[in-house]
Amino acid sequence: MQPSSRRTFLASGLALPAAGLAHAEQANPSKEVKFTYRTLGKTGLKVSSLSFGCMTTSDASVIERAADIGVLHFDTARSYQGGNNERMVGAALKGKRQRVVLSSKTEGATKAEALAQLDTSLRELATDHLDIWYLHMKNNPGDVTDDLLEAQRIAKQAGKIRFAGVSTHFNMDRMLPYLVKLGQTDVILTTYNFAMQSVAEGANTDPQAPKSNMTAAIRAARKAGVGIVTMKALAGGVSRVGRGDRLYGADQRALSKQLSQPGVPAAAIRWVLKNESVDTAIVCMTDHDQLDDNLRAMAELFSPADASLLAKQMAYIGPRYCRMCGTCGGVCDKGVPVSDVLRVLTYAEGYGQFALARERYLQLPEHVRAIRCEDCAACSVDCPHGVKVRERVSRAQEMLA
Ligand code: SF4
Ligand code: SF4
């Protein structure tokens, strides 16, 4: 494939010092993108404030180039892409391992399972250690078992991991204080985005919106020395789906109008990074254009124009995007784990990753997959954030069951 002029230009950044400036502006080549770096809590690890989420990447050259021009942190998981993502990441980072911070995750339910997965991760990533190893998707205190914490201690002692992490997708404002109190976790990976802000924080103009405690929870955890890595900065990623994507349903015109607003992903990234307690934001990137856009977003400060864009975006995603607050856990009469289902739906709709969404949906228990919202006379789940739960869960069932 012939490299684009943008790529050629970016590749020229290779000659620049690692901690220096990378040039990443095709419209105005004289404009420089300045990398910003932060320190990951008490770990002392230096990370670029924009980190590379590899979950949805299938083009290894994007990862390779990101590492070459100054992105320092790359994140994957044993489970991503049916277990194939780590191998691709390992190949992309060949020869660069010593200068990047590499993380992966386990969903192993026991110490033995987790440690076996770690050995597989190391083999697939072609490395002898991970910088951060997360216990993945721990959304309730009971999920962080002594057995799994022991697995992390064993892995540390064996030199297979440097730091122990926990990733949390729901109930984050409860999980963060819990993990800090437990004192076993060096790094927390948490969902955090503009859809979780309170009115006082800017873009959320709905005075009825529930107050989010996430910004405070992040600040307190960081103050305690825990490294803070965030994910899902784009709040579902809907603005990056191509115009007229049929996945969004009937009102194509309204959707296209909404999606035509440029700058929303960049504003969303800047919103996360304006919180100085966030050490780095992992953003999934699939192609070179997204990488370039995100590098530019990292280099600029959050502005009033960003706040205005995000307020408009909130009006669109309000009834669609699950903030993963966990409030509706166990509320569905039939037993649908609503936030799990809506997260999976986001993979298909927001990230355009239908195969991943289907794979994750099929991992739900059989009795959950058999439920149909259309069989309910009324929905018992009343989302305080205004998510149209019945409509959205039905959508997931229609697409993925
Ligand atoms: S559907 Fe609403 S209540 Fe349930 S987790 Fe999502 S945002 Fe929270
Ligand atoms: S409509 Fe769907 S989400 Fe609501 S109670 Fe019924 S099965 Fe549960």
Blueprint of the fold:
Layout: H1 5-11, E1 21-22, E2 33-34, E3 37-39, E4 46-48, E5 50-53, H2 60-69, E6 73-75, H3 85-92, E7 101-106, H4 111-125, E8 130-135, H5 146-157, E9 161-168, H6 172-182, E10 187-191, H7 214-223, E11 227-231, H8 252-259, H9 264-273, E12 280-284, H10 288-299, H11 304-317, H12 338-349, H13 354-361, H14 366-369, H15 389-400
Parallel strand pairs: 5-6, 5-12, 6-7, 7-8, 8-9, 9-10, 10-11, 11-12
Antiparallel strand pairs: 1-2, 3-4
Helix pairs in contact: 2-3, 3-4, 4-5, 6-7, 9-10, 9-11, 12-13, 12-15
The structure holds iron/sulfur cluster (2 copies).
Structural class: alpha/beta
Number of DSSP E strands: 12
Highest CATH level, the class of the largest domain: Alpha Beta
Listed once per kind, the bound small molecules are: iron/sulfur cluster
| Number of domain units | 2
**Molecular shape:** globular
Strand content: 5-15%
User: Residue share in helices?
Assistant: 25-40%
CATH superfamily of the largest domain: NADP-dependent oxidoreductase domain
Q: What is the mean predicted local confidence, pLDDT?
A: 84
> Gyration radius, to the nearest Å?
20 Å
Largest pleated sheet: 8 strands, parallel, barrel
Low-confidence stretches: 1-30, 239-248
* Side-by-side strand order of the widest sheet: 5-6-7-8-9-10-11-12
Number of helices: 15
How would you describe this protein?
The strands form three sheets. An eight-stranded parallel beta barrel has the order 5-6-7-8-9-10-11-12, surrounded by seven helices. A two-stranded antiparallel sheet has the order 1-2. It is an alpha/beta fold and 401 residues long. Strand 9, helix 6 and strand 10 (187-191) form a beta-alpha-beta unit. The protein has helices spanning 5-11, 60-69, 85-92, 111-125, 146-157, 172-182, 214-223, 252-259, 264-273, 288-299, 304-317, 338-349, 354-361, 366-369, 389-400, and strands at 21-22, 33-34, 37-39, 46-48, 50-53, 73-75, 101-106, 130-135, 161-168, 187-191, 227-231, 280-284. Bound molecules: iron/sulfur cluster (2 copies).
